[in-house]
């Protein structure tokens, strides 16, 4: 079973990240689970979401305490105590950060993608969840672009929003492939 923790700030789309990832993985034939965890429910406050992906039925119904992957939507959260806690020994951190802002994550495999620049260009806002889906798909090869696009089509009704989100997924997918 693959366990993913997504950390972000309220309004960046951590919950939508988990939902879209689980739907895309479901289309790949996996059993999935997606769940949010809210603290203070306000824009800008730290938030988390969790996704489980498995070839077998998932019987666990708890928060994820030892993720295989931590996807970070805001690089400032890498410094917040507990955001990377429990990451498995061979776990990976995928973080939204500009190269010059990249923070060394000691003893952990990591990949930094500047998803913010892509989101600002596409949306004019720092909503990087679908961009980081592309990075996750490229790094893990667990979910195809085709199935992430199907998840986006289900989630967003507005055709323009679907196109922009698919472009963001594809751009970060390609950028991540260049780095790995």
Give the key terms.
37% helix; 5 helices; six-stranded mixed β-sheet; 180 residues
Structural summary, described in words:
- The two termini are 23 Å apart.
- The protein is 37% helix and 21% strand.
- With 180 residues, the protein is of the alpha/beta class.
- It has helices at residues 14-27, 115-123, 129-140, 145-155, 159-179; strands at residues 2-9, 31-37, 46-54, 69-72, 92-96, 109-113.
- The longest helix is centred in the last third of the chain and has 21 residues, at 159-179.
- It has a single domain (2-179), classed as Pyruvate-ferredoxin Oxidoreductase, domain 3 (3-Layer(aba) Sandwich), CATH 3.40.920.
- A 6-stranded mixed sheet has the order 2-3-1-4-5-6, with helices on one face.
Detail the topology: elements first, then pairings.
Layout: E1 2-9, H1 14-27, E2 31-37, E3 46-54, E4 69-72, E5 92-96, E6 109-113, H2 115-123, H3 129-140, H4 145-155, H5 159-179
Parallel strand pairs: 1-4, 4-5, 5-6
Antiparallel strand pairs: 1-3, 2-3
Helix pairs in contact: 1-3, 1-4, 2-5, 3-5, 4-5
